[in-house]
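Re: Re: ligand-bound prediction request (bumping)

Still looking for help on this. To restate: I need the protein modeled with glycine bound, output as structure tokens. Inputs repeated here so nobody has to scroll up.
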Amino acid sequence: MNILVLGGGGREHALAWAIKQNPKCDRLIVAPGNAGIATLAECAAIDPCDTAAVLACVEENAIDFVVVGPEAPLAAGVADRLRAAGILTFGPSAEAARLEASKAFTKEICDACGAPTAGYARFTDLAAAKAYVTEQGAPIVVKADGLAAGKGVIVAMTLDEALAGLDEIFGGAFGDAGAEVVIEEFMEGEEASFFILSDGVNVLPVGTAQDHKRVGDGDTGPNTGGMGAYSPAPVLTPAIQADVMDQIVRPTVAEMARRGTPFQGVLYAGLMIKDGKARLVEYNVRFGDPECQVLMLRLGAQALDLLLACAEGRLDQVRAQWADDHALTVVMAANGYPGAYEKGTPIKGLDALPEDSFNMVFHAGTAARDGQIVATGGRVLNVTARGDTLAEAQARAYAMVDRIDWPQGFCRRDIGWRAL
Ligand code: AMP
Ligand code: GLY
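Reply:
Sorry for the wait, this slipped through. Here it is.
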């Protein structure tokens, strides 16, 4: 079959890598892709949110199946338009994507289905929000309702930070995404991510992972899109996973179906675990980046069969076959990230690295220029490895990092510390 993957980051490189290994895949196009993706698929210079261009690409290339990587095209209704055109598509409708695109909507669903989450209140008025925060006191969490590229959440340890956060959001720092705020109880505990496929009715867990959000070693410095991840996440024990499925995931999927907006795609549940109990922090409606990279390295070719079963509504007939293994990915970012950074710097040494089912460098922000690979983004490479133990996966990943010659890049040296 001919397959189109929408997106051009490390997540999409990992998806393309797994899909390409499955004999069902005849032709693979990734839009827009990147320099790493170009080594295993055709890249099409298309904006994934440009529905007309995506539909034209599907028609021209007789695409049978579309996998949507990022949240923006989902929130923009690209999956709806593809399905309306009769194209088999992996990814939720715009209505169902509100589970990520509106934090207030997610709270509404949690209330309706009884899923455990942080207590909260919603505001569209600055003065009322300030009065509430002042009455509640710190620590407290202030969130812009809409999509804000991961920047619309202020975990305020002091009242002043919370009030400043409200000024920022209502002052328009996040545009329309900040027209409403959700103010939440601060939850303590250990965070982990749980990935579940849903075909609208049936659900299938496809792995757990832990991200490293802060830029610096020891979880210091500002928040980022994620500086590294590993899978599985030992904190999500089988018993906690079973509770999360029963108390959070199945009730959510049932409530979405009851409303006539079934969720089809991957549900990424961000969880806070304390004393053996998990509460929902947030939902995302796509694979995590870089969490997808470790999941795909562990799933390999079967990933395509699972994505197809999800899109075709037959998740009850498939099962994920897990090896008893571990995967870990280290993000290499441009110096200065998540602040200002230089673009176009050359990266050397990639050709000499192993590329197999145990070692993969997934590209996030790269381009090929004059026969060289250059950095084009903040997060640039995802150096990923698998092993029988997490320590082995970590040692393999850092051994590859140390062979990459990129003076203008950096990485955290402690990915995996919490589990090791
Ligand atoms: P979100 O974009 O909702 O995932 O929030 C970003 C990060 O803020 C999360 O990954 C958590 O680390 C933190 N966070 C969000 N909500 C809460 C909460 N209610 N209590 C504690 N930390 C939170
Ligand atoms: N790594 C966090 C995310 O994908 O949202």
